[in-house]
Amino acid sequence: MTHLGSGQRLLLWLLALGVAAGFALTGRWQLDRMHEKKAKLDEAAAALRPTQPKPLLLASDPKRAQAYDWSVGRGSLANRTLWLDNQQRAGRVGVRMYCVLLPDEGVQAVLVDAGWWPLEGSRTLPVFGCPAGIAQELRGLLAPPPSAGLAHGDAVTALGDGRWLASRMDMVAIAEAMQLRVAIAPRVLRLDPSRHKDDAGVMLAPGERDLDILPNTLTPERHLGYAIQWFGLALTVLIVAVVLTFKKKKHP
To answer: What are phi and psi of 204, to 5 degrees?
Structure first.
């Protein structure tokens, strides 16, 4: 191998610095995502500590659309069932069932997460749905809805008989598809998984319930691991550039 000329060295370092900077920026993005998700987990954990429950009407507060609050409220269920597609749990793919709660307080409906069900290869949805007109007190975690991801196709598809299948949680599209007279709150109510199965109404739905904040996305630890990999690639590029710059010509 011959010595690199000054022009070649300059081109090599410009290329190396550009590639290394790209890798470093990607690593920084992964670190930012790690801190963002860790903050969400910490906030949710604080909301789950035994404190005075907050009113359900806070679900409608746009300033707390991304916040977490332990909440209790009364209302009645509408005769409408929403299945949210492509929801993972313990490595399995399934759907989440949401019922429409019309709270006694507040002017917006609240989607209630009634549980998760696996879908087999036939992708046949469960035959049961949300009960209608049952007034009850519900408690759980007010939380942002599952991430929408990349939006493509219709957000909601009507299945008939008061049932809809959603590809993403577009509250405006869901309210329009269900022909609700009120808007839907930006947060959903994730039911208390410790609630007894013999409770009335929506609690009878035999789905799997939890308060997992990041069910369909990477954990903070995974983001940290990816960040380290990207920073390592950036360092490797710079080391290779140094080696090529000072590598001496081999004589026969």
So the answer is: -75, -15
